[in-house]
Amino acid sequence: METEKKRTYKFLVLVPHRDIRSELQKNCDSAIKAALKAPLAGMYTFPRVTPLVSLSRALEDDELKQIARSFRKKIGKNKIFLHEDVVTSFPCDEKNLFLCGPRLDIDIHQDFFKNISKKINYFFSSFVIGCFLKSEDNTKLNVFCETPQKNLGFRAAAVANMYWRTLQINGEICYKWKIGKLFWLPRPQRTDD
For the CA atoms of 18, 19, 23, 25, what is the dihedral angle to 10 degrees? Predict the structure, then answer.
């Protein structure tokens, strides 16, 4: 077996609580079943995380803790809700690689990451919980359109480094990833009424 490794990419990711990830897995499984009815070349699984930025080097623990605190301050006690399916470019070795999944309703601009701006290579234009990577085109896979919707949202989440590598094994492309140590967003502050 011949394996060719390419460079490792690093991303800052938002990792929703496992309850929302397992619920999302059910929707992704339904989308895969629907996609298998009409063969879809170049479709790859993706961890149920949201890439926020691509990094030149991994973030340190203190930087991740600060980002977790900043996220909590930004969203407060509110939930982050999942909305319609979105397709966004995914920076990697291959050109025209797209990340598909539900969009998060968070409004975060580049200045949110000013403390780590020197390490940022790429800022994602849409924040998507990854379900699939596609190499063909940017057609949606209807992760949410095939199943009845309830308001999926979460408060509990963590930030982490994600390490991503493209492998070529016997001429076939595959991807390997690892999620680093999780830094959970602090609990929302309670206010006494």
Answer: 10
